[in-house]
Amino acid sequence: MNRRSIVSGFLTIVFCSICILIFFKIGIEEEQTSTAVAQTSEKKIEKEQPVKTIIKQSAITLNDDYIISFFDKEIRVQLKQSETFSLQTFFEQRQILNENEESLSRIATGIYDLVVQSPFEIIERHISSVQPEYAELGLEAAFKRDKWDLKFYNPQDHSYELSFKNNGGQLIVQLIGPESARTYEVVKQDERTYKPQTIVQFDPALKPEAKVINNEGRDGEAVTVIKREYEDGWLENETVISTDFYPPVFKVEKRGLKSAAVNNESSTVTENDTNEVEKKTEAEQKVDKKNPSQDSKQESNNDDLWEKPEIMK
Questions:
Q1: Which fold has domain 181-271?
Q2: Domain residue ranges in the chain
Q3: How distant, in Å, are the alpha carbons of 106, 228, 273 from that of 224?
Q4: d(CA 101, CA 156)
Q5: At a CB cut-off of 8 Å and minimum separation 6, what does 90 contact?
Q6: Fewer CB atoms < 10 Å away: N or C end of the chain?
Q7: SS3 call for 146
Q8: CA 56/CA 65 separation, integer angstroms
Q9: What is the pLDDT, as a whole number, of residue 120?
């Protein structure tokens, strides 16, 4: 009996020791597994939060000390995913809407130059009737309080930032966001120039051969802007962003009267009208020389077909 008890007790001790070792090993493995899972989660979180960098930057000359003073301290604006940015709202929050509209349009143009070369979608954008000297053709964005806003939408699944900072009188605007394999390029096509017409005003106060230029006029311009999207250097998509048109500004010229028979009141015609009259006179003279017997017929026909034009005085 004693031997059996001793053997039984020994086997019990061995069994208990084996169980303890097994449980201890399982505990170590579970701890290692938990540590590995935690490390994997941390790496995944780091991967889901890409490092942000400066994507685009523009420098805006304002020549407006008051407005530039609002940006002495850096201002950062979050462009959250699936949200729309409004420039008017941005200005309202900083109470600078009552200032010079040209300065605000300069800021709008600088921002537009950044976002049009990024994944943002343009919701609202306007241009002036005359292209301003500070804006590149096709890249202007005009702003008028409560009338013309600049709005764009962030369709991405992550946020961006706009940074504003005064740098020695220049407003530096930066678009900050994660690095991406996708890149964007703005291309201009179908650039056209339209020469202005000349408006001629006859002034009896001038000498017969005198000419005075009141307005030099300005060429009109048009352009189509296209955004191209690349993935790892390969063209993936091409979208027409805008077709901008600036009409020509007429040239205004004053001339002296050449005939004493003309009324002593100044009149206005365009240069094209003058050319048409001269061409018609030359053509009539040629017909008269070739067919002098048809004068009466032509006059009657002309009376039937054409009305006498009104002379603007």
A1: Resuscitation-promoting factor rpfb fold (2.20.230)
A2: 50-180, 181-271
A3: 21, 13, 32
A4: 31
A5: 77
A6: N
A7: coil
A8: 25
A9: 96
